[in-house]
Design a protein that fits this description.
The chain has 15 helices and 15 strands. It is α/β, with parallel strands linked by helices. The chain binds pyridoxal-5'-phosphate.
């Protein structure tokens, strides 16, 4: 597909300059159409009946995710967002006093809050593995710190607050060597780079639909390695995740759908399948290449603007660029850009507290590009930013 076709299929590109793809990307028309078709079907024939009619499309959502991850459809659960996906895995594990959870400095707030809660409840301890000078988890330090008390390695693949891409496959190799489960938060990487779980050697992986996959809001997914599914007990169960087999007994499903609930956003899940197929058709290697190149162009251009500091670290970098300005707060910049139909978001220190404090970061403007963005949009973005900064 040419860039022109991609943009024609993305109606939002005519209305806004969208550099908020790490917030929620603009969906392509086929994703919008699939959802609307399903909603209309629900209105015409009933929600349960429409879901029954959409059974093949829903199955294909599992199949598309399995194709993307290189796993079986029995290893995929559809849930409402990346947080719940991650929670179902994390809170499904057993921790005791003295157990260690290893993570990295750029951990996402929701995940770290969950670590703290579980540590408080169980006496487990959270250990933050040191980072390299360029911000990645230090894999040598990780290897050295592993002992027989480590119960989990949990990594945010691409942090919410910048370009850094952690060496997830190296971490996975260390986890596999040590026989420790590895939970990868791929929320910001799903849809912008390939995620082959065999190469990443992750035990569990969580992702969301609305970001780089360009899927619907309110959709997420969880992958769990088949050998681990029955060792992770969902923290919440319903009559779909488990069967009430006698007055005093129940049986939990043996596949990853044990992490789901009966009621779900069917139109969104159908749309998610279309979005994943869309990304697979374009090719995740090609997407990564273009997104990375555009983001580097943006960083270079931003670094040349007076009074602007680019805050990204990482030897390997993603489509997310963060920056701050000497004389204007991030929220003010974001609002002024929004008034000019230019979309960005703000990343506050509390979303990645350890990293923000270690690097003394203020609130950051986050400009995240996707493959459908253009070099001309980068030029326009930088010109608009200069305009905003000079009042
Ligand atoms: C690294 C990371 N993990 C998890 C999430 C949560 O994703 P969701 O909002 O789909 O639950 C985010 C959201 O920004 C994120 O940046």
């Amino acid at each position: 597909m040419t860039l022109e076709t991609l943009r024609e299929e993305t109606p939002g590109t005519q209305d806004v300059l969208h550099f908020n793809n790490a917030g929620a990307a603009l969906p392509p028309q086929p994703v919008v159409d699939a959802q609307i078709r399903h909603l209309q079907r629900e209105a015409r024939i009933g929600g349960y009946e429409a879901a029954a009619d959409a059974a093949d499309a829903l199955e294909d959502t599992y199949a598309a995710l399995a194709d993307m991850l290189g796993c079986g459809t029995d290893e995929v659960a559809l849930v409402e967002n990346a947080t719940r996906a991650w929670d179902m895995a994390f809170y499904g594990m057993d921790f005791d006093a003295g157990d260690r959870i290893l993570t990295s400095r750029a951990a996402y707030a929701s995940n770290y809050i969950a670590f703290l809660q579980v540590a408080e409840r169980t006496g487990a301890q959270v250990d933050v593995v040191p980072s390299t000078d360029t911000g990645e988890i230090d894999v040598n330090a990780l290897r050295e710190t592993i002992d027989d008390r480590v119960r989990l390695i949990a990594l945010t693949h691409i942090p919410t607050n910048g370009g850094l891409v952690h060496p997830a496959a190296d971490v996975g190799a260390i986890a596999a060597d040590a026989g420790v489960p590895f939970l990868l938060d791929a929320c910001q990487s799903a849809g912008q780079r390939p995620l082959p779980v065999d190469d990443l050697q992750c035990t569990m992986l969580s992702g969301t639909g609305r970001k780089y996959l360009r899927g619907p809001r309110g959709t997420g997914f969880l992958y769990v390695d088949r050998n681990w599914i029955e060792r992770i007990e969902p923290p919440l169960l319903d009559l779909y995740a488990a069967t009430w087999t006698s007055p005093d007994t129940y049986e939990i499903r043996p596949d990853a759908r044990r992490f789901e609930t009966f009621e779900s956003h069917v139109a969104g899940q159908v749309g998610l399948g279309v979005a994943v197929r869309y990304a697979l058709n374009l090719g995740l290697d090609a997407i990564r290449e273009r997104v990375t190149a555009l983001a580097e162009t943006l960083r270079t251009a931003l670094a040349a603007v007076d009074g602007v500091t680019v805050a990204d670290t990482g030897r390997v970098r993603s489509g997310i660029t963060t920056f701050y300005a000497e004389h204007m707060e991030a929220a003010e910049i974001q609002a002024a850009l929004r008034e000019r139909d230019v979309n960005t978001s703000v990343s506050t220190p509390s979303s990645t507290r350890l990293d923000a404090e270690a690097r003394h970061l203020p609130d950051l403007v986050r400009a995240s590009v996707h493959y459908y963005n253009t070099e001309a949009e980068i030029d326009r973005f930088v010109e608009t930013l200069k305009d905003v900064l000079t009042g």
